[in-house]
Amino acid sequence: MKRSEFIRSLGLSSGALMAFYCMGTLTSCTNEDTPLPQTNPNPNPINNGKVDFTLDLTIIANKALTGNGGFIYNGNIIIARSKSGTFVALSKVCTHEGTTVEYKPATDDFYCPNHGSRYDLNGKVTLSPASLPLKMYMTQYTDATKMLRVYES
Length: 153
Ligand code: FES
What we know:
Blueprint: H1 3-9, H2 14-24, E1 46-47, E2 50-56, E3 71-74, E4 77-81, E5 87-91, E6 102-104, E7 109-111, E8 118-119, E9 125-127, E10 136-142, E11 147-151
Antiparallel strand pairs: 1-2, 2-11, 3-4, 4-5, 5-10, 6-7, 7-8, 8-9, 10-11
The site of FE2/S2 (inorganic) cluster (FES) has 10 residues, from loops.
C-alpha cells in the first residue's frame, strides 16, 4: 500500500494529507522562487597563482560575515569580521603544526585549538608555541553589493 493510500484509509482530508507530506519533505512544499541551499558557493580562492576571490555576503554560506564576530573558511583562508566590523583574512593554517585556527570574538583574535597559540588581527603571534605569523590577505568590501574581495597584492 502506498503512503497516500494509507493516509486516505485513515480518513484524512487532502489538506491533512498535504501537511503530512510537508512534514517529511519541507523542500517539496517551498515556493519555486525560494533559493536552494548552496553547499559550495564560494569561488576557488586561487586565480592565476594568487589568492583572489570575491564572497557574496547575501548567500547563506557567508551569513556569518554579515555580523561582527563571525567567521568562515574558504580554501586555506579564514575570513573573519572583527568585533569592530573590520574584515580580516588570514591563512587558516597554524604556523606551529598546521592545525586550523579559529576566530574568537570574545578576545577578538585567532586561536589554535591544538596547542593554544594565539594570533592578533594582523596574524602576529601573541601566544606561543607558534613563532611565525599567519599570512595576511587584503580585503575590500563593497557595501552596496555586499561583496567582499579577498586577495593578495
Ligand atoms: S598546531 Fe597550532 S599551536 Fe600547535
